[in-house]
């Protein structure tokens, strides 16, 4: 989390100027980081995002304005003040038109410098970032994704969010909606892998009265319900191919036709989709339409697994303790450093969702105000006994079954397909889906000879 003292990154290829400005600003209560070139400054920003950048305009190689434009790519809200001995009104006008907060000339007046910096910091704090408040992070990697999300939110393009299960894809989709011009409209989410095909079609597009058995009333679909807002299609990779055609038409033509109806309805909806599957592999296997993939994947946001953002584990743990304590056990006030250390060392294959489950369990069971190491160890051990989701259980069974029949047939796909009562093409698709290859199950001549020798 950010320190109470704002961090100022000073960039200048003059070591004397760097020293003077560092002393002045540190004496005024700021934390200071320095860089002697623009490329070095970009590396500093990646390591820890400052609250403000104070940069010289004229530097060898990459100058101050080029640095500003590069920083804006990933940090559009980061304020920057330019300083130069070659200041002029045209330079200042050009810089401020491009988004630079302030423009100071050397020799720098100390009071003017502090006024400009404080004004820039105050302006930055006043910017509304409530759109991302549900995503708890201090990870540079995750903040980079959020900056990308903010940039794309203002457009109306389709976004595909990818990443492992439990990384917060729906939270990111909702954040994009809140940062968009559609934020006053509805945000509606549906899991495309959780419903059978007929029900999913009816949920998305609606149905007419009498369209099928049980359709006793007309039903408005989610495309209509999300009018003027955002429709989030989670686990889009699990959508049946027959429905993918109808979805493509709805996105391209902005019309939907309810099941059993002859009437088409215009819709104004932004579609954000998500999947943990590799859709490119699914396309190769004929399980996902290529034209739909490119329609959905105008912009791709790939969310990192929790193991790639370890600095977020203590932050998230404390947040979940606070949230869970309100709901389940108000006497819990915190978590011990040792317990946090255990959490930080865990693998978290279930990502943020698994971490939340572990913390919620410890809060519910805690008999003291501070969650202990023992409770955390017990909760992590119990995760192995937690019932998985239907999709995860099905995938686990499929892989286990395929592995077993491939071992039985020593990698002979034709024989394995016969045992499974699937045609050879479908069986190959299943193997590819689970990253299994026939070669890994074949018995080598060397192993066979050794087995005969042992048997003799």
Please give a quick description of this structure.
This is Response regulator. The longest helix has 19 residues, at 390-408.
Care to describe what's here?
With 456 residues, the chain is of the alpha/beta class. The protein has 4 domains: 120 residues, Response regulator (Rossmann fold, 3-Layer(aba) Sandwich); 163 residues, Rossmann fold; 80 residues, Helicase, Ruva Protein, domain 3; 62 residues, no CATH class. It is 49% helix and 12% strand. The chain has 20 helices and 14 strands. A 5-stranded parallel beta sheet has the order 2-1-3-4-5, with helices on both faces. A 5-stranded parallel beta sheet has the order 7-8-11-6-12. It has a two-stranded antiparallel sheet with strand order 9-10. Helix 15 packs across helix 16. The protein is globular and about 80 Å long. The relative contact order is 0.07. The C terminus is likely disordered.
What brief labels describe this structure?
456 residues; alpha/beta; Rossmann fold; Helicase, Ruva Protein, domain 3; five-stranded parallel beta sheet; 14 strands; globular; DNA-binding; AAA_lid_NorR; two-component regulatory system; transcription regulation
Structural class, please? alpha/beta
CATH architecture of the largest domain: 3-Layer(aba) Sandwich
The CATH topology name of the largest domain reads Rossmann fold
What's the arrangement of strands in the largest beta sheet? 2-1-3-4-5
Basic shape? globular
Name of the CATH class of the largest domain = Alpha Beta
**pLDDT averaged residue by residue:** 87
* Computed Rg: 28 Å
Sheet with the most strands, sense and barrel status: 5 strands, parallel
Uncertain segments of ≥5 residues (pLDDT<50)? 446-456
Assign a percent range to the helix content.
40-55%
Q: How many H/I helices? A: 20
How far do the termini sit from each other?
67 Å
> Which homologous superfamily in CATH is the superfamily of the largest domain?
P-loop containing nucleotide triphosphate hydrolases
Protein name: Response regulator
Keywords: ATP-binding, DNA-binding, Nucleotide-binding, Phosphoprotein, Transcription, Transcription regulation, Two-component regulatory system
GO molecular function: ATP binding; DNA binding
């Amino acid at each position: 989390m950010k320190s109470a003292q704002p961090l100022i990154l000073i960039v200048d290829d003059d070591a004397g100027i760097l020293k003077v400005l560092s002393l002045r600003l540190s004496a005024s209560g700021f934390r200071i980081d320095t860089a002697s070139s623009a490329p070095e400054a970009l590396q500093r920003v990646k390591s820890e995002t400052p609250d403000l950048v104070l940069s010289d305009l004229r530097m060898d190689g990459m100058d101050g304005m080029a640095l500003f434009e590069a920083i804006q790519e990933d940090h559009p809200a980061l304020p920057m003040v330019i300083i130069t001995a070659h200041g002029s009104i045209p330079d200042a006008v050009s810089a401020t038109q491009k988004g630079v907060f302030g423009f100071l000339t050397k020799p720098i007046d100390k009071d003017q410098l502090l006024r400009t910096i404080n004004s820039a910091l105050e302006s930055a704090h006043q910017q509304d970032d409530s759109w991302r408040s549900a995503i708890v992070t201090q990870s540079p990697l995750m903040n980079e994704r959020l900056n990308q999300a903010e940039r794309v939110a203002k457009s109306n393009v389709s976004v595909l969010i990818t990443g492992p299960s439990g990384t917060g894809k729906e939270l990111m989709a909702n954040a994009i909606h809140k940062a968009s011009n559609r934020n006053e409209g509805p945000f509606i989410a549906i899991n495309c892998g959780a419903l059978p095909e007929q029900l999913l079609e009816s949920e998305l597009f609606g149905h007419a009265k009498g369209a099928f058995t049980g359709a006793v009333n007309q039903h408005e679909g989610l495309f209509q319900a999300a009018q003027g807002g955002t429709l989030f299609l989670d686990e889009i990779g699990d959508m049946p191919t027959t429905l993918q055609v109808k979805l493509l038409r709805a996105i391209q033509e902005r019309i939907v036709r309810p099941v059993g109806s002859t009437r088409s309805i215009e819709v104004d909806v932004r579609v954000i989709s998500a999947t943990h599957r590799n859709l490119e592999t699914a396309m190769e296997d004929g399980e996902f339409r290529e034209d739909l993939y490119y329609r959905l994947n105008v912009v791709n946001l790939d969310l990192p697994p929790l193991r790639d953002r370890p600095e977020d584990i203590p932050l998230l743990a404390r947040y979940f303790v606070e949230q869970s304590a309100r709901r389940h056990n108000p006497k819990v006030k915190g978590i011990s450093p040792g317990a946090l250390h255990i959490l930080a060392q865990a693998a978290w294959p279930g990502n943020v969702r698994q971490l939340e489950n572990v913390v919620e369990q410890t809060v519910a069971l805690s008999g003291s105000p501070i969650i202990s190491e023992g409770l955390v160890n017990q909760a992590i051990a119990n995760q192995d006994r937690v019932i998985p989701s239907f999709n995860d259980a099905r995938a686990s069974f499929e892989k286990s079954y395929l592995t077993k029949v491939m071992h039985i047939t020593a990698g002979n796909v034709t024989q394995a397909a016969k045992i499974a009562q699937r045609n050879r093409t479908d069986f190959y698709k299943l193997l590819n889906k689970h990253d299994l290859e026939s070669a890994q199950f074949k018995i080598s001549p060397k192993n066979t000879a050794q087995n005969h020798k042992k048997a003799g």
